Amino acid sequence: MTIAPTAAPQATSLYTTNAPATTAKKEMDKEVFLTLLVAQLRNQDPTSPMDTNEMMAQSTQLASMEQLTGLADTSRESFALQMRIAASGLVGRQVSFTDADGVTRTGVASSVSFAAAVPTVTVGEHTVPLDAVSAIEVAAAATTGTTTDPSTDATGTTTDTTTDTTGSTA
Description:
Layout: H1 30-42, H2 52-88, E1 94-98, E2 104-113, E3 120-123, E4 126-129, E5 133-137, E6 147-152, E7 158-163
Antiparallel strand pairs: 1-2, 1-5, 2-3, 3-4, 6-7
Helix pairs in contact: 1-2
């Protein structure tokens, strides 16, 4: 009789578990600052306590850090709002972008989505992130039919002449 080998079960102990390791914080926030301050107070020498001036300086640093964090959050929100405004201004305009294959394409932006962190613009069958739009032009349907053509007169001065769609100069 043959017994098929099987994998041995993994043993767990107090020191080895299957729980994933926690990731360290990448930003210093007020919780980290307060944890450090409390650890410093707990571990101070009772015969030589922390100077009150130093305690006030650290409290001021905490308040400053909270204000800077709030300012950074406000700045991020402002930038996100500016991106949304810029993206919504593209609807109905002709835009150029480079697709995933490296081909530069041009088309009229038909809609905008704010579902992702960066707004996306729909151009034909393509959905393009706002930061991939490389040029913006006025769509042909939105023009008035007149163009401005700078030309130079006999004195060398540049003058603007307006041409309508029939080709005659005004």
